[in-house]
Amino acid sequence: LSQPRHLDSHETQKPTNQVRALAVLPDGSLVSGSRDRTIVVWRKKKREEGEGGGEGGDRALVASATLLGHSDFVTSLCPLPSSPSTPPTSTPLLLSGGRDAVGILWDVAAAEPVAKLGPGAHKWAVSSVAARPAAAEEASPSRSSSSSSAAAAAAAAALFTASLDGTIAEWDLPSPSLPASAPSRVLRGHEGPVQA
Q1: How would you label 82-116 residue by residue, b for 16+ Cβ within 10 Å and e otherwise?
Q2: Which one of 68, 97, 179, 184 is at 20 to 30 Å from 158 when CA atoms are compared?
Q3: What is the DSSP string of 76-99?
Q4: How far is 149 from 141, CA to CA, in rounded Å?
Q5: Using an 8 Å Cβ cutoff, are 162 and 127 in contact?
Q6: E strands within the chain?
Q7: pLDDT band at 180 (very low <50, low <70, confident <90, very high)
Q8: Residue 160's closest CA among 124, 113, 114, 194?
């Protein structure tokens, strides 16, 4: 096994509490979600930012952005799949869930929320999030070429938020970047919390 990478961050971006969720973006960046309500994007350190010495050396990761929007701790993260016409280095959208009972869709490159899923769809914390990839005809190049933003580069047909209240909400994406304002359906049937 190779040596683990050291995560080196700027003080203003370092998570100050437990990390509760991790995800890897298609461009290779790592994303962490924490109990301090932050989502931090980590990228490989460039040579000019520090050579060799020190823990991790040139394998170190540095915090490149902090996403702020949840009012309670972040519980889950899910990168949206990229469109086939999008270069693998493009920054995709990211879906996060929180104990504040909402999901947030993020444009990672801009470090800005695109849409908030909820509140109101769930009574308790969002414990898990997922994205259903679009079929080939839904993820056509014409759909993603109308804008250069990361929001237009996703190839997801629907988003899902699961909750400790036992429900799973499905959210349609009528456009590449904008979920429906309310869930298209809410799945009920679990007698206990949905945790994965």
Answers
A1: bbeebeeebbbbbbbbbbbbbbbbbbbbebebbbe
A2: 68
A3: EEEEPPBPTTS-TTS--EEEEEET
A4: 14
A5: yes
A6: 7-8, 19-24, 30-34, 38-44, 61-68, 74-79, 93-98, 103-107, 112-117, 126-133, 156-163, 168-172, 185-187
A7: confident
A8: 194
